[in-house]
């Protein structure tokens, strides 16, 4: 799968933990769209208002550390984010994002992306393209199996297909 | 065949592929557990991915426990208990009741864990099963709920960090002291996504209840799993505790030339009792550094150190004595069977006479829900696994982590006390073979 429509990059720094993505006072919510209204609430209050479908979150090292709760990736999905590019991810965020069908790329050169740049994630080629500068950054493609999970929309749709309980529509 | 770690061998076996660290696999899960906090969510996921009420082929591999809020400490907890009970009644999953104990202790005592198995739990301390030579790891509710339906789950085969302890441990030094030392050395994220493998002659000599402590706290350095190669001690333990007849495959061990990401080596005789200062398990120091710190509450219990042998150490220290005035001692056995053994052996009587509050089996105050939460400025020494800010109550409370021997000595004097400083006779009692301490 290639996310081929360029979208705005929302750039964050290192060690953005789940409390910064979704402040813990909002974890009583579970609806992705409601959670999205509070995404990065304290860190970048304008994010939830201005983010549009098809945009990207870009971050430095260790994105998503902290809680094992699924609210953080849910809030990004609810905001319509097409994917997250980071220099590295915390384990539990990585697992939860894959399970929920949120595309991720590990990209050592993510720091070269400036806030507001138009980018695309080329998941098949393992690259992030910066349409602002014309640069191409190598990124680790997801292993085939995880790519399949993400393409299907996460672990629940994947399991439904395996079980034959997917809706026939 | 490529040389493999025990982790790589188990995940190869369970996925039917020949894999090493870094590979992604779908693997068959032998058993799985959830409790009154994470269980209702897992059930929701299961019901979402399955059509309608149907047979649950994995029902016999699924265990529900009521431990975090048990007996129910509020209406929400009571309702959650009922959600699990109703599901178990309908699908035939194993349901354990209030006072049956903490999920990990129940899994081990009831024979749901065997060497070489792959066991998951919707609880971060599911690493505990590595003490029996199984690969145990904590997962999310989406993971668990879908695994109810399919019996398998995806994993990334982790790299391994090896902790080797050679020689003999000094008196007063237990597995708890070792693991606090390891966490202090690598840091709270030092083993993130990796297996912590514990080896060396000192580890091989550890009785199973202490190996479980090492595996349990692997998560406190970010570990995906913690494991000790199984041996005949595991066979004997499972026969005695779980009436399981298991023979350990001699090949269920890391190959000599297996690849490790790092190896840390220790000489057992150099080690001292450890205490982790507030508010991170990685703040481990020799007990000398904190001796004399005033303590309001001593908490003995949890999936880390709530077993009979742990409580017995505390009872031996306090036999015929009183808990220091101004200090509270709270003891929470990890399971009903631990409770019963304390009752039969007089340990319960000794502790209650010494002034302890002895509670029903479960997680107790470990996660700050009930049964002894801390108030502002309270200072606690706990045999638990975490001491993050607010973990056991108020954000303004402080928790030190230590071994049961350190907890017992601290309860006696009301301040952090080096267990090696106790009277020789009393100390001699509690390092008896019965307690299983390595001399």
Automatic annotation (TrEMBL), chain A:
Pfam families: Aconitase_C (PF00694). It catalyses: (2R,3S)-3-isopropylmalate = (2S)-2-isopropylmalate. Keywords: Amino-acid biosynthesis, Branched-chain amino acid biosynthesis, Leucine biosynthesis, Lyase. The keyword Lyase applies. Catalyzes the isomerization between 2-isopropylmalate and 3-isopropylmalate, via the formation of 2-isopropylmaleate. Heterodimer of LeuC and LeuD. NCBIfam families: LEUD_arch (TIGR02087). This is 3-isopropylmalate dehydratase small subunit.
From TrEMBL, chain B:
Residues 9-291, 294-414 form the Aconitase/3-isopropylmalate dehydratase large subunit alpha/beta/alpha domain. Binds 1 [4Fe-4S] cluster per subunit. Pfam families: Aconitase. PROSITE patterns: ACONITASE_1. InterPro entries: Acnase/IPM_dHydase_lsu_aba_1/3, Acoase/IPM_deHydtase_lsu_aba, Aconitase_4Fe-4S_BS, Aconitase_4Fe-4S_dom, HAcnase/IPMdehydase_lsu_prok, Homoacnase/IPMdehydase_lsu, IPM_dehydratase_rel_enz, IPMI_cat. GO terms for biological process: L-leucine biosynthetic process. Pathway: Amino-acid biosynthesis; L-leucine biosynthesis; L-leucine from 3-methyl-2-oxobutanoate: step 2/4. Keywords: 4Fe-4S, Amino-acid biosynthesis, Branched-chain amino acid biosynthesis, Iron, Iron-sulfur, Leucine biosynthesis, Lyase, Metal-binding. Its EC number is 4.2.1.33. It is an enzyme of class 4 (lyase). Its cofactor is [4Fe-4S] cluster. Heterodimer of LeuC and LeuD. Catalyzes the isomerization between 2-isopropylmalate and 3-isopropylmalate, via the formation of 2-isopropylmaleate. This is 3-isopropylmalate dehydratase large subunit. It comes from Natronorubrum texcoconense.
């Amino acid at each position: 799968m290639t996310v081929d429509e360029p979208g705005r990059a929302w750039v964050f720094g290192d060690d953005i933990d789940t409390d910064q993505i979704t402040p813990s006072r909002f974890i009583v919510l579970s609806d992705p769209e409601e959670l999205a209204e509070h995404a990065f609430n304290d860190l970048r209050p304008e994010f939830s208002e201005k983010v549009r479908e098809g945009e990207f979150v870009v971050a430095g090292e260790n994105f998503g550390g902290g809680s094992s709760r699924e609210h953080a990736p849910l809030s990004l999905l609810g905001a319509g984010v097409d994917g997250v590019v980071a220099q590295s991810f915390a384990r539990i965020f990585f697992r939860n994002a894959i399970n929920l069908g949120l595309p991720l790329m590990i990209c050592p050169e993510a720091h070269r992306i400036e806030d507001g740049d138009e980018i695309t994630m080329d998941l098949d080629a393992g690259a992030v393209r910066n349409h602002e500068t014309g640069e191409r950054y190598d990124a680790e493609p997801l292993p085939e199996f995880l790519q399949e999970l993400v393409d299907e929309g996460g672990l629940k749709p994947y399991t439904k297909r395996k079980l034959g309980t997917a809706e026939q529509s | 065949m490529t040389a493999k770690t025990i982790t790589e061998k188990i995940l190869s076996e369970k996925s039917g592929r020949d894999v090493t660290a870094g590979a992604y696999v779908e693997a068959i899960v032998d058993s799985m557990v959830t409790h009154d906090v994470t269980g209702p969510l897992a059930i929701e996921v299961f019901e979402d991915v399955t059509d309608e009420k149907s047979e649950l082929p994995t029902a016999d591999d699924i265990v529900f426990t009521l431990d975090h809020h048990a007996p129910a400490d509020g209406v929400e907890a009571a309702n959650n208990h009922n959600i699990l009970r109703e599901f178990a009644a309908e699908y035939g999953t194993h349901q354990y009741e209030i006072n049956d104990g903490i999920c990990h202790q129940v899994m081990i005592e009831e024979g749901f864990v065997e060497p070489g198995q792959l066991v998951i739990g919707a609880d971060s301390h599911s690493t505990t099963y590595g003490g029996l030579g199984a690969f145990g790891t904590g997962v999310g509710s989406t993971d668990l709920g879908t695994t109810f339906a399919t019996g398998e789950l995806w994993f990334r085969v982790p790299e391994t960090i090896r902790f080797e302890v050679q020689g003999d441990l000094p008196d007063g030094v237990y597995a708890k002291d070792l693991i606090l030392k390891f966490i202090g050395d690598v840091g709270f994220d030092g083993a993130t996504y990796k297996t912590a493998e514990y080896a060396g002659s000192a580890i091989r000599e550890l009785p199973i209840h202490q190996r479980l402590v090492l595996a349990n706290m692997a998560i406190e350095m970010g570990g995906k799993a913690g494991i000790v190669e199984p041996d005949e001690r595991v066979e004997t333990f499972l026969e005695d505790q779980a009436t399981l007849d298991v023979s350990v495959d001699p090949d269920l061990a890391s190959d000599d030339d297996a690849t490790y990401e790092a190896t840390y080596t220790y000489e057992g005789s150099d080690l001292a009792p450890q205490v982790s200062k507030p508010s991170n398990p990685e703040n481990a120091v020799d007990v000398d550094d904190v001796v004399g710190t005033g303590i309001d509450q001593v908490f003995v219990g949890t999936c880390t150190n709530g077993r009979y042998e742990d409580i017995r150490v505390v009872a031996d220290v306090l036999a015929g004595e009183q808990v220091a005035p101004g200090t509270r001692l709270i003891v929470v056995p990890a399971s009903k069977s631990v409770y019963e053994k304390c009752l039969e052996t007089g340990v319960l009587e000794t502790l209650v006479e010494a002034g302890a509050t002895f509670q029903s089996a479960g997680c107790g105050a470990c996660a700050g829900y009930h049964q002894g939460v801390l108030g502002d400025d309270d200072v606690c020494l706990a045999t638990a696994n975490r001491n993050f800010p607010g973990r056991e109550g108020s954000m303004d409370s402080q928790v030190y982590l230590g071994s049961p021997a350190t907890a017992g000595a601290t309860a006696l004097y009301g301040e952090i006390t080096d267990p090696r400083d106790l009277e020789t006779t009393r100390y001699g009692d509690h390092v008896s073979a019965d307690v299983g301490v390595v001399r």
